[in-house]
């Protein structure tokens, strides 16, 4: 009788120990699986992310602008052909101006130059289109000395895109100049809002 009782106790102890180990393995597996799941706050690469726009056509596609030259456009959707405020031609003009006026400047400096042009378009003191502002007599050195005619680089198109989206590192400036080379006393008399690279931005 004692042997049977002892045997039962040993069997019960063995089963309890086996059950404990099984639950422990399950718990460890569960914790490991949960730790491998991405949390809501954890940043994961977006499959929707796109590279910076490097041509006027890419800018136009991003901004839903009308496309006139379809040669190097890989994909166009119906809604991307809707006519908006700006045109592909104006994107090109703005990029050429950036290239001519701020080719050696930082990206921020390039966007700021473009923003000044757009600020002028919105101001009652200047013409109301990008083309008229750029080609206003004596407005930009790049137009006067022929730099405007050079083909823009990728950064110029990207900077134009950012400015057209509303970025304005110039803080609302209507003018800018290089303090080291400017000879106009009037521009030097303007209040400087901020300086970015070689350019002082004023109103």
Under CATH, the homologous superfamily reads Cell wall hydrolase SleB, domain 1
CATH architecture: Orthogonal Bundle
The CATH topology name reads: Arc Repressor Mutant, subunit A
Structural class: mainly alpha
Count of structural domains? 1
Distance between the termini: 105 Å
- Major beta sheet, specifics? 3 strands, antiparallel
As residue ranges, the low-confidence spans are 22-47, 79-83
Please state roughly what percent of the residues sit in beta strands, choosing from under 5%, 5-15%, 15-25%, 25-35%, 35-45% or over 45%. Answer: 5-15%
Q: Give the helices and strands as they follow along the chain.
A: HHHHHHHEHEE
Supply the CATH class: Mainly Alpha
| Residue share in helix | 40-55%
Q: How does this model look, in words?
A:
With 203 residues, the chain is mainly alpha-helical. It has one domain (56-202): Orthogonal Bundle (Arc Repressor Mutant, subunit A), CATH 1.10.10.2520. Helices cover 48% and strands 6% of the residues. The chain contains eight helices and three strands. Strands 1-3-2 form a three-stranded antiparallel beta sheet, covered by helices on one side. Helix 3 crosses helix 4 (107-122), helix 3 packs across helix 7 and helix 4 (107-122) crosses helix 7 (154-164).
């Amino acid at each position: 009788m004692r042997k049977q009782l002892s045997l039962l106790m040993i069997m019960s102890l063995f089963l309890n120990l086996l059950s404990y180990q099984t639950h422990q393995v399950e718990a460890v597996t569960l914790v490991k699986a949960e730790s491998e799941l991405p949390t809501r706050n954890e940043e994961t690469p977006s499959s929707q992310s796109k590279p910076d726009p490097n041509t006027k056509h890419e800018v136009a596609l991003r901004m839903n602008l009308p496309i006139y030259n379809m040669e190097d456009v890989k994909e166009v959707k119906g809604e991307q052909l809707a006519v908006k405020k700006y045109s592909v031609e104006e994107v090109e003009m703005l990029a050429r101006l950036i290239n001519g006026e701020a080719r050696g400047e930082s990206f921020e400096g390039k966007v700021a130059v473009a923003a000044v042009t757009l600020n002028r378009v919105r101001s009652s003191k200047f013409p109301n289109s990008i083309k008229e502002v750029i080609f206003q007599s004596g407005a930009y050195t790049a137009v006067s000395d022929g730099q405007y005619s050079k083909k823009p680089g990728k950064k110029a198109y990207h900077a134009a895109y950012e400015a057209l989206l509303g970025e304005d590192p110039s803080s609302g400036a209507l003018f800018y100049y290089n303090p080291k080379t400017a000879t106009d006393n009037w521009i030097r008399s303007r209040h400087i809002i901020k300086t970015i690279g070689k350019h002082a931005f004023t109103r």
